[in-house]
Amino acid sequence: MPGDSRRVPGPQDSRSPHWYGKQPPQHQETGTRQDGRADHDLRPVYLHAGVVSQATGSAYIELGQTKVIAAVYGPREIARREEFTMKGRLCCELKFATFSCRRRRQHMQDNQEKDVSLIVLQALEPAVCLDRFPKSQVDVYITVLQDDGSALAAAITCAAAGLADAGVMMYDVVTGCSVRQCGDRQLLDPSGSEESSQEGEGVEDHGMVTVGLLPSLNQVSALVLDGHLPQTTAVQVSRGCLFVCLLVSEPGAGTRVGRTPAATNSSTGCEDVYRRMPRNLPHS
């Protein structure tokens, strides 16, 4: 098969030199995390809607160094060959940019991206009024520009903000949050190094929980657990995620859906509020 003689025949897969270097400890001697946060502190949050002019609606979110952008197109008519349905269809596709991770990603969508796309779709469907646009579909395209931890939670929040910016009728705007359990420590909004760290894998309580919440309806639309957690620990971590979703969705938190950018450092006082979680949170 003839090839392109002008193209540099580089390797199909490549990794950053930092991949093979010695990783610094995730916890400092002072008890704080590697980036200086306490265990129950959030990273700074930035959310801006209406960033893609060609799309019906769009949104861009930053959770620390994690950057995600979402574009929404539709509602548009489904092809005539499809079976008629009184409910609309929501399609979601998530893709990691080739430069988003420490290991270079492929241009084609892999199995991990397909699984994450399905999770985001399942988190968004309960919030969209599908009966308002029969025989039509809404397409949501999500691109992770940089993955520094909690990419799934950021994708859920960003996609929901894009749907709201597109004017799609929704019951509520979904917000996402992730918590990593490492032994007896709960790391709220984990970074990329904390997600990939092998610290705590020998203990019983080791895993990560991601929750998607409809804050106004007080209902859970997605719950993903990765790792090994006993039932009591999983329930406790899930309830912590639910409370943080409620905290982020409040207007006073500094993140709102709209065309005006808003930035906030949500770590201020978050640990004290996290410890005083209310008892009337929805059960997962």
UniProtKB/TrEMBL annotation:
One Gene Ontology biological process: rRNA processing
Residue ranges of the TM segments: none
Report the domain of life of the source organism. Answer: Eukaryota
GO CC annotation: cytoplasmic exosome (RNase complex); nuclear exosome (RNase complex); nucleolus
Domain (Exoribonuclease phosphorolytic) spans 42-168
> Which keywords annotate this record?
Cytoplasm, Exosome, Nucleus, RNA-binding, rRNA processing
Subcellular location field: Cytoplasm; Nucleus, Nucleolus
Give positions of region: Disordered.
Answer: 1-38
One GO MF term on file is: RNA binding
Which Pfam families does its entry note? Answer: RNase_PH
Name the principal localization, coarsely classed: cytoplasm
Q: Does the keyword Nucleus apply?
A: yes
Q: What InterPro entries does the record tag this protein with?
A: ExoRNase_PH_dom1 (IPR001247), ExoRNase_PH_dom2_sf (IPR036345), PNPase/RNase_PH_dom_sf (IPR027408), Ribosomal_Su5_D2-typ_SF (IPR020568), RNase_PH (IPR050080)
Q: Which PANTHER family match?
A: EXOSOME COMPLEX COMPONENT (PTHR11953), EXOSOME COMPLEX COMPONENT MTR3 (PTHR11953:SF2)
Instruction: State the similarity comment.
Output: Belongs to the RNase PH family.
Quaternary structure and interacting proteins, as annotated:
Component of the RNA exosome complex.
Reported function: Non-catalytic component of the RNA exosome complex which has 3'->5' exoribonuclease activity and participates in a multitude of cellular RNA processing and degradation events.
Q: What is this protein's name?
A: Exosome complex component MTR3
> Which source organism?
Branchiostoma lanceolatum
Which gene name does the record give? EXOSC6
